[in-house]
Design a protein that fits this description.
about 250 residues, two-stranded antiparallel sheet, 2 strands
Length: about 250
């Protein structure tokens, strides 16, 4: 029987594989990080749909307002959305983490065209399915995004929560931050926003969003073995998709 206390044990081999992935040691130059960010931007962007999916499922987003679900879960997801969608950039101006990442990409000289073109197509009215199908990006990226958005748009709350909490929490190890800091010392200014993004994301995930998400999962799954099993299954799929994404990016660097 999978429970809140055993789920991390079940996922630990996949997480270890990610945290020890050879990709990180390849990110030892500005050029390598530019390639990484061009593809990683899709993971930064589609993460927001998982967050907003949970907000739609756990709070009232229609009029007239009525209480929905648990006040605890409402508070948790609204605080997470506030942090992810309305944080501040290096100048103290409001920005989502996606927009902050785009700033970092522009500063370091990474190609923002692929992710911006996809998001712009959706903003202009295309369905995400059509926009993704027609996008000029590798199939490996399409597969990663397709899993995330299909989950966000179709799965029940406990499955979306499982992917968000266990399959998409911070998976960038201290090694990568150390590499970026080293590059910052060599080329002052070009990676400042990226370093800020990484440190801010880890701060929020570790001190605030991580504990909040675990509490949310306890409320969503409770004593239901079926819910815990499904949440774990989809979290495993999310981690496997991230490993394949990391494999692809490592081959491009």
């Amino acid at each position: 029987m999978i429970t809140a206390t055993t789920i991390n044990q079940d996922l630990s081999p996949l997480k270890a594989k990610l945290l020890e992935h050879p990709l990180y040691t390849k990110l030892n130059s500005i050029e390598a990080i530019q390639v990484f960010m061009t593809y990683h931007a899709f993971a930064v962007w589609d993460f927001m749909s998982l967050v907003k999916s949970l907000q739609q499922k756990l709070t009232c987003t229609e009029l007239p307002w009525v209480p929905v679900g648990s006040p605890g879960s409402r508070r948790l997801i609204n605080e997470i959305v506030w942090g992810e969608e309305s944080d501040v950039d290096t100048q103290g101006k409001p920005a989502s983490h996606y927009e902050l990442y785009l700033q970092a990409m522009e500063e370091i000289g990474a190609d923002t065209t692929p992710i911006v073109d996809l998001v712009t197509a959706i903003q202009n009215g295309a369905s995400w399915e059509d926009a993704l199908s027609e996008a000029h990006i590798p199939e490996e990226i399409k597969n990663f995004v397709r899993f995330s958005l299909t989950t966000a748009t179709s799965a029940p709350a406990h499955i979306v929560g499982g992917v968000f909490t266990y399959g998409r929490e911070d998976l960038i190890p201290d090694l990568f931050i150390a590499i970026v800091r080293g590059l910052a010392n060599q080329q002052k200014g070009s990676v400042d926003t990226l370093l800020y993004y990484l440190e801010r994301h880890i701060e929020l995930d570790g001190e605030e969003h991580g504990p909040m998400a675990l509490q949310m999962m306890q409320e969503l799954c409770g004593d239901s073995t079926e819910n815990w099993d499904e949440a774990t299954d989809f979290a495993q799929r999310a981690l496997e998709h991230r490993i394949r994404l990391w494999d692809f990016i490592a081959a491009q660097v």
